[in-house]
Input
Amino acid sequence: EGKAKTSDAIASLGKIVADNAETIDEKLGVKYGDYARTAARSMQETAAKIEAKDLAELGEDAKDFVRRKPGVAIGIAAAFGFLISRLFKGGSSED
Output
């Protein structure tokens, strides 16, 4: 169930980015719109790969990625942690 939710979330985010690529073209330039389209395609492909693999394969892929690119993995983890903290902070009454 978690794998399906993750895949769906990535695919949805990819669709949002793709749907807004034309607006990005208009506001920032075609070059940035093309970046958005490329990112959207990558997200759609990633979602399909996640859906096609079982959890053991995904775990091995993650371990391999961390071994090959530890700096990138740390950066992703830090960004994810920041986003999660913002989500929880946003839901509190301290805002």
